[in-house]
UniProtKB/TrEMBL annotation:
Protein name per its UniProtKB record: Uncharacterized protein
Lineage top rank: taxon: Bacteria
Organism in which the protein naturally occurs: Paracoccus shanxieyensis
């Protein structure tokens, strides 16, 4: 039985690139080490590439981390001078810090 042909839009197309020999050799070597064809390796590399960080997010994260640092210093001071009731208040602050850090990590992973 003959194999069914793919629809035209589902077929791969031959592409052509220009590259210096010194750039091609490491690509070829890396593809071989990964057990992929060069085409598969290049496609995989692009799909798995991490996008550069957004400067706005980096600034936001730096500001949040500064706030957290100040809050942790306040908690440390409070615990050093605390009595039992103040330790409970410090624990509440620590939970708030943990939640903020979790939000930062979630945002950073996007």
């Amino acid at each position: 039985m003959a194999r069914l042909r793919k629809l035209t839009e589902d077929q791969t197309k031959t592409r052509q690139i220009s590259v210096y020999d010194e750039d091609w050799a490491p690509i070829k070597r890396a593809a071989k080490q990964a057990g992929l064809t060069i085409s598969q390796f290049l496609i995989s590399s692009v799909k798995n590439a991490r996008q550069p960080a957004n400067p706005v997010h980096l600034i936001w994260m730096a500001e949040v981390m500064q706030d957290v640092t100040r809050e942790l210093a306040r908690v440390a001071d409070g615990l050093a001078k605390s009595e039992d009731g103040e330790q409970i208040a410090s624990s509440v602050i620590l939970v708030a810090i943990e939640r903020r850090l979790a939000a930062v990590m979630k945002q950073a992973s996007r």
